[in-house]
Specification:
This protein is of the alpha+beta class and 813 residues long. It has 25 helices and 21 strands. The strands form two sheets. It has a six-stranded mixed barrel. The chain has a six-stranded mixed barrel with strand order 13-14-19-16-18-17. Helix 2 runs antiparallel to helix 12, helix 9 packs parallel to helix 21 and helix 22 crosses helix 25. The longest helix has 37 residues.
Amino acid sequence: MPALLQDIRHAFRIVARSPLFSAIAVGTLALGIGASTALFSVVNGVLLNPLPFPQASQLIAIYEQNAGMPEAPISYLNFLDWQRASRTFSSMAIYRHEDFNLTGTDRATRVNGLMISAGFLSTLGLHPAHGRDFASSDDRLGAAPVALLSDGFWHRRYGGDSSVIGKSMHLDGNEYIIVGILPAEFRFYDVERDVFLPIGQWSDPSFLDRRVDVSSHAVGRLSPGVTLAEAREEMDSIARQLAIEYPEADKGVGVSVIPMKEDIVGNVQPVLLALLGAVGFLLLIACANVASLLLARSMRRSGEFALRAAIGASSGRIIAQLLTESLIIAGFGGVAGLLSAFFGTKVMVRTLPAALPRSGDISIDWKVLLLTLTVSLICGLGFGLAPALKSSHVNLQQVLRQSARGAGGGRLRLQGLFVAIQTAMALVLLVGAGLMLRSFAALWRVNPGYKPDHAITFSMSLSSTSATTEAETRARLRRFDAQMRSIPGVEAVSVTLGSRPMIHDSELPFWIKGQPKPASNNDMPQSMFYLVESGFKEAMGITLKGGRFISEQDDEHAPVVIDIDDVFARTYFPNQNPIGQRIQIAGFDVEAEIIGVVGHIRQWGPDNDPKTAIEAQFFFPFMQLPPKLMRLVANGVAVVLRTKGDLTSVMGPVRAAAAEFDSGAVIYADETMNEVISNSLTARRLSMILLGVFSGIALILSCVGIYGVLSYLVEERTREIGVRMALGAERGDVLRLILRQGAVMAILGMGTGWGLALGLTRLITSQLYGVSPHDPLTFCSAGFALMTAAMAACYVPARRATLIDPLVALRYE
């Protein structure tokens, strides 16, 4: 213990005596440890931490499964049958997203919510913080309308007043009694909802049609001791039985059972793991850099080590002293890295929330702190061990003979090895960042099937009651169109429902007239559908390839018509003209004539569609929507608008114009179509930005390493350079000598880095678009950038070497 305390005191004196060196070493480690800690905090919050529910591992997401969609919404009647028949689930609940107009104040506002079945909260393992939960008697048609509020909405709207329980609120023109307040910080699928209503009170007739899904989903809790495989086996058995009992609706319909955490995280796991590997490279670069700096400093302390050995210090004692110094530097680096990670994580979550599911669960917790401590200790031992071992073997006579010239070439070779390692890893990161950048650029160049410039989309809800007729709704939408077209600068406008590119998807089964009718809806092909008005083609900027597009004359009094996209035409009408053909649309129970063909819209995003994605699309006239569905339109429609002017300034006139024809209308969720495309690429943008940051830091650290090695090399070879110049060497010769040594280290590292990159870039193949993981241009560009930076780092010490005065160098020696 006395020896340890002595080593610690001496290490602190050494650190304090070289403030510049210590700051560089600590700063280098802070970059590596901070980046790794920040990214681990993201991985920990998103992938490792359990969901914020009791026994969260038992929570399961349940979907219907058919040929068109492996994870499809479910029908309410199927859910009730699952609930009755299942024994592997202790409870099961259904829910659907729904937004509402909140009235009763000067201005109607839009609130987001969930329609849930009784038992939804108990399935999640939760209970209201105030008031009561929904009872089974609430969850049925004809029951008194009741509502639950989220804690956040309760505080924003009612100031956290508990007396609000038992009072009423008006949603979509109907009165609901508030019966409870949910726990604080409750979020479901990473979204905080405002209000919750019983789903069983929903009076829409399609809700009780087993053939129709109304965007409902289910969540279940496994019974104690039940495995996921057992639950899947049971649900498959139930699905087969339902297919026998209801062949028209359930033939070919399976059940998809997925852990809820896996369902929430989605496809971000491979992205985060790839980034975690990249930040590991950055940490190794930082350690190699500090090891190189420590080794260089140990050259200048050769006399000290020789003296220690001469008075009896063992090799182990010298190693212990140097490792203590390394661990203290690593400790300071860990603290600085933790502080930088704290702020870096906040910036990452704040700037890229859409790319990070469970962003609210990301924090610096005890696991992150433990990782930082462990990484700091490992780094301290890792970068300190090689210099310590090298310095512990002291040749006393050689040191005295070399005098001020230090320890010689062996350490320089080891330093060169560290630099080569840094360069190799930096090149791997540069190649990865280059590939992601080229992929992102390629995605931006993809034609999405429409013209996003000068186009904006938003949602709108009209004031309505259950007595509002479908004729009244049509009339109000026509007045809305006229109001929008009267706004200066507006070129085209269309109300739309169903699918919206990269925002929402809706599918319907159909069959082609003249061909045998499939036995059930699930045997029919599926197509994406867009409910649109005549202005949709101009508002979106889609291309008409044949026939005509929907016009104002295609209204409720005209024969039903549709347009299809070219994928639909190639798939279902190969080698024939689809115009004039007729299809039966099962979900709408109507027969429609195809009147035109338009270009395909990239519904799923600019990159390659999922293998299971439905590609075919048709466009249905909004005004020909069946009456039973038109009544629901007032609850919420989308609008696409094209303007000549500034998109950011058009929403003010839009809201004013909407208020003129309906004072209760609410406009919300506006975003430009360019923003829609950008939002669809958030995960790729996250990868590109972080890889770019990591590769930039790695490049800087590699240059610092090369600069440090060559600086010490020039100092070590001062006498040699003086002799060369005294014997007639030109300054250019000396410059080339030093630059050559730096280039050799960089080239060795680049050769190794290219080999590593060839193998490792295969791991990000799924993240690439329009570029090969072995793209020669990216590899060469990364190598050129690295070599240019390395030569720039070499130039300063090389230039310093040319300024050595031979007489001064020889006199000093």
